[in-house]
Amino acid sequence: MSRTNRTSRHPSERTLHRFADADLSGSPAERVASHVSVCPHCRARIRFIRVLGRAASDGVEIEPPAGILERALARRAAGERIRLPLNDPPRLRSASALARAAILIIAIVGGIFAVGVRELGAFRSDLSFQPSRPERGERIALTYRADPGMAEQQELRVRARLRSKHDENYNVGMKTTVVATLVRTDDLLFRGSFTLPDSIVYAVFAVETLDGRIVDNNGRRLWELSVHQADGRPIAEALEQRSSDMMGRNWELAFESAKELARQYPSDPHGLSAVSFFEPLALGTTAWSDSGLPRFQERFAQLNRELRDRQDLDGDALQWMMLAARGAKDSIASEHWRTALLRRFPHHTQSLQLHIVYDILVPHYKDTTRVLHELDSVWTVVEHEPDKGGPGYRHLVRQGLNFAAGTRDADLTIRWAERFLAVFPSLSTEVAARLAAIPTLRQRAIQILEAELDRVEAAPDEDRPLEMTVEENQRRLEIPIQRLSNQFGRVLLDDGQTERAAESLQRAVNIGWNTKVFRSVAEVQLELGQASAAFRTLARVAADPTTTASFADTARERLGQAFDPSSWEEHVRTARETMHRRTLRDATMRSLPERIRLVTRDGTTRTFREITNSRVTLVVIWNRYCGEAIQALPDIGRLAQVLEERGIAVVIVAEQPPSDDLYEFVRERGVTQPLYHDTRHEATRAFNSWGTPEYFITDELGRIRFEYTDLFSALRQAEALTEEIATTEGSQP
Predict the structure, then answer these.
(1) CB 3.0 to 4.6 Å from 334: which of 96, 317, 325, 391, for a disulfide?
(2) Cα torsion angle, 631, 633, 634, 640, sign
(3) Cis amide linkage into residue 657, ω under 30° from 0
(4) Tens of pLDDT along 335-389?
(5) Which residue has the higher pLDDT, 43 or 724?
(6) Which residues, in sequence order, are CB contacts of 456 under 8 Å at separation 6+?
(7) In angstroms, rounded to a whole number, what is the distance separating the alpha carbons of residues 718 and 644?
(8) Separation of alpha carbons 568 and 575, rounded Å
(9) Whose CA is closest to 261, among 300, 225, 235?
(10) pLDDT grade, residue 61 (50/70/90)?
(11) Does position 91 have pLDDT exceeding 90, yes or no?
(12) Intra-chain end-to-end CA distance of the chain, in Å
C-alpha cells in the first residue's frame, strides 16, 4: 500500500489509545500525529480517551439510579428510543468525575444499548432553553451539558438556523448565524443567553468549538425551539416552519408537525392543506383514494362551511383553502377560493403565479413582445414589495429572464437579470448562463461567475450547514467549486481567453471527482488541441466504477491518433488510485454493536452480521412514510443490482414490519431485493439514523466506514473500500 493510502486511513482504536497514553513512538507515532493534525474525528476521540483515563484514575464511585435496568428493558421492549441517563445522576464537582459516572452507567447497560464506551458521544450532551416555551422576542438562557469531546474548552458558541413565518420548505440556501457564546461554569456545564428576534417563530441549534472544528449536532437532530402562545401552545407559524424545516431532514416529523397544526388549529387551513400533501405520499395513491381521501373530503367540507363567508381571512388563508380544495377534488370550492384570492389580494405571491400562468403565459406564450410587456407591468406594481418570496415572484422573474434572453436584446436581458438576482441572489450561475449566450453580455457573465467562485471559495460561515464542521464543509464545497470552475472555463473559452479557460478547466478536473465534469472538460481540451490533457481526463472517466468497459473504444475514437494503447491502462490505473485516495479521505471508522437484530419477510430474526457475511455492504435506512424515501426507490433498486453483481452486499432496512402490501409497494417501484425490518429499532439506534432515506457503507468487519452518504457516491465508496481491504490483506505476511 502507498504511503498516501496509509496516512489517509483512520488509525485503529488500539493505536489511538496507545497514542493518547504516550505509549507510541518513532514512525508509528509520527504517522498518527500527521493524521490527527487533519482529522477532527480522531482528535475528538483522543480527547475523549484522555478524559476517560482521568476519570478512571479518580476512583469515583457512584450508584446507578434504582431500577435503571428494569426500566430500560421495559422501554426497549416497547420499541422506544431512549436516551441515557434515564434519571439525572447526582451533581459531581469535576469533569472527570462526571465522565466516571457516565462510564459506570454505560457499563451497566452497555449490553442493552450497545454503546461503545470509547466512542465519542457515548455520554449524551444536552442543550436546554429557559424558558423552554418562549413567547416572541423573549430572552433565552442557555445551559449546555457538554460532550466529553469538548471537555478541554473554556468557551463554545451556538449557531442557529432562524425561521420567520415567511420561510419555505427545505433548508437549501438558508443562512445560519452565531446567536450566543457559551462560557464554562463548572464541570462540563456551559451557560449563555440570547434574545430571540421578534420575527422568528422557530429555530434549530448546534453547539461547536470557537474554530468550528468540533460540532455537537445532537446526533444530527439538532436542538429545536418553537415560539409559543401564553396558553403554552406552539403558535401556528411555529408548527408551519417546523414542518418546513423538517422537510429537509425528516419527512415523518414534517408530517407530524402538519397533523399537529391541523389538530391544534382546526380553523387554520394551512394544516389541512399540508396534510393533503403528505398523506398521499405516506399512504400511497391507492390507499389514499380508498381511505384517506374520503376522510379528508369530510374534514375539508366542514372547514369550507366554517370559513366560506369569512371576510377577515388573509391571503395565506385563502391560498391554503384553494389548495386544500384541490386536494379534496372539490372544483367548485377551488374556484371560489381562487376568485376570492385574486380579487382581495392581487399582489399575494399565489395570486401572481395564477395571473402569470393563466392570464399571460397560457393565452400569449407565442407573442414574446406581449408577454414581456405584461410581465414588466406586473413587476412595476410589485417592485417595492418588501417580501418577494413564494412561487409568484419566482415565476415572474424566471419567465421574464427566459423571454428576455430569447430576444437576445442586451438591455432587456440585463434588466430582467438584475430583477432575477434581486429575488434569487443565490442563483447567480443561472443568470450567468443566460448572459454568456449573448456576446455583448459575456463580460458581465464572467464577472458574475468570478464573484461567485470567490464567494464559494471563501466558505462564508453563514452558508455552512449546522451539522457540519469547518473541514467537512470545505470538502462539501468541492462539488460546487468544481462545477463553477467548469462553467467559468467554458465561458472564458467562448470569450477567447484560452489560457485562463484551460487553467479553470484543469482545476475542475483536479478539485473533485465527477465524471460528467470530466467528460465536459475533455471535449473542451480536445477543441483546444490539448490531446495529452484530454487523454488523462478521459482516463479518469474510465477509472470510475459507473463507466462501462467499452468506454476505452469511445476514448480511442475521440482521441484518434493521440490515443496511446500502451499507456492507456497505466493512466486508468493511476486515475483509479487517485479516485480511491480522494474517496477514502472522507472515510470514518465507527464500530457497530455485535448484535443488531433484523426481521425477514417470513418473521425470522437474523443479525446484521449474519446478513452481511463479512462483506462490504451498502446499508439503506428506509421508511414507507417518507416522501423522499419513496422517491428514491427506483434509484435504490438500480444501484442495488449493480452492487450485488460486484459482490457488494445491500441491506435495505425498513422501519415498518413486514407485510404483503409493503413488498408490493416497493416492487412496483423497482426494488426486488429483500427488506429487513427493524422492529426492535436496534439498527436505527446503532447507525444513529434519524431521517430517511439514509445510506451507510460498512466494511468486512461490520464497521461504518462512510456515513450519511448518497447514492451518487455509494458505488465509488464501496469499490474504494473493497480495494483498500484487498490491498491491506495482500500486504500482510
Answers:
(1) 325
(2) positive
(3) no
(4) 999 999 999 999 999 999 999 999 999 999 899 999 999 999 999 999 888 888 8
(5) 724
(6) 477, 480, 481, 484
(7) 11
(8) 11
(9) 235
(10) very low
(11) no
(12) 13
Beta carbons of 260 and 239 less than 8 angstroms apart: yes
* C-alpha atoms less than 13 angstroms from C-alpha of 77 in its C-beta half-sphere: 6
Quick: pLDDT tens for 696-716: 999 999 999 999 999 989 999
Helices (H), 78-182: 95-113
Provide, rounded to the nearest whole percent, the portion of the chain with pLDDT above 90. 65
Whole-number Cα distances in Å, 231 to 235, 257, 262, 393: 10, 19, 17, 36
Give residue 342's Cα distance to chain centre.
37
Residues 6+ apart with CB under 8 A from 48: 118, 120, 122, 148, 149, 151
In eight-state DSSP terms, residue 37 is T
Whether residue 561 has pLDDT greater than 70: yes
Helix ranges (DSSP H) in 467-612: 470-476, 478-494, 498-511, 515-527, 531-543, 551-559, 565-585, 608-612
The beta strand positions in 628-703, using DSSP E, are 649-654, 675-677, 694-698
Per-residue confidence (pLDDT) for residue 596, from 0 to 100? 94
**Position 378: which residue type?**
V
Round to whole Å and give the CA distance between 31 and 525: 39
3-class secondary structure per residue, 64-80: CCCCHHHHHHHHHHCCC
To the nearest 10 degrees (0 to 180), the angle between helices 627-645 and 269-283 is 20
Kindly give the pairing relationship between strand 694-698 and strand 155-164. Answer: unpaired
Name residue 149's amino acid: G
Query: Tens digit of pLDDT for each residue in 150-187?
Result: 878 999 999 999 999 989 888 888 999 999 999 998 76
- Cα–Cα distance for residue pair 690/114, rounded to 1 Å: 17
Q: In which residue are the cell numbers 417580501 written? A: 387
CA distance 463 to 181: 19
Peptide bond preceding 131 in cis form (omega within 30 of 0): yes
How far, in Å, CA of 598 to CA of 608, rounded?
Answer: 7
> Could you give the residue ranges of the DSSP H alpha helices within 135-268?
236-246, 251-264
pTM for this entry: 0.77
